[in-house]
Amino acid sequence: APNFKIKIMANMSYCRFENTTRDMEDCIHAIEYQETDELSSYEISALSSFLNLAREIINLEPEIEGILESYEK
Q1: With left for phi above 0 and alpha for psi between -120 and 50, is residue 8 left, alpha or beta?
Q2: Do 50 and 27 meet the contact criterion of CB atoms below 8 Å apart?
Q3: In whole numbers, what is the pLDDT of the chain averaged over residues?
Q4: How confident is the model at residue 4 (pLDDT cuts 50, 70, 90)?
Q5: Which of 16, 18, 21, 46 is spaced 20 to 30 A from 67 at the CA atom?
Q6: CB-facing half-sphere around the CA of 59: CA atoms within 13 A
Q7: Is pLDDT of 5 > 90?
């Protein structure tokens, strides 16, 4: 079997939220337009993680709002 190396590029801190937001919007679009008919087992697992992360984001809402307010000053 061929030896494949997987290269994972981390988001650079200066664009992490911008890139992640764009990717999340793409995922939300896929869910809204029911583009979820042919998900692999990896994608099903990732969708479950996506939902868990959404819950974590909601739980962090006060901290996120505090960060945003600190930049508005």
Answers
A1: beta
A2: yes
A3: 91
A4: low
A5: 46
A6: 6
A7: no
Q: What percent of the chain has pLDDT over 90?
A: 79
Mean pLDDT, range 5-25, rounded to an integer: 82
Query: CA dist 28 to 12, 13, 68, 73, Å?
Result: 23, 23, 23, 32
What Cα–Cα distance (Å) separates residue 54 from each residue in 1, 4, 20, 44, 71?
A: 38, 32, 13, 15, 23
Distance CA 22, CA 17 (A): 8
Distance from C-alpha of 37 to C-alpha of 16, rounded to nearest angstrom = 29
Distance CA 3, CA 12 (A): 28
What's the token pair of residue 60?
């962090």
Specify the amino acid at residue 63: E
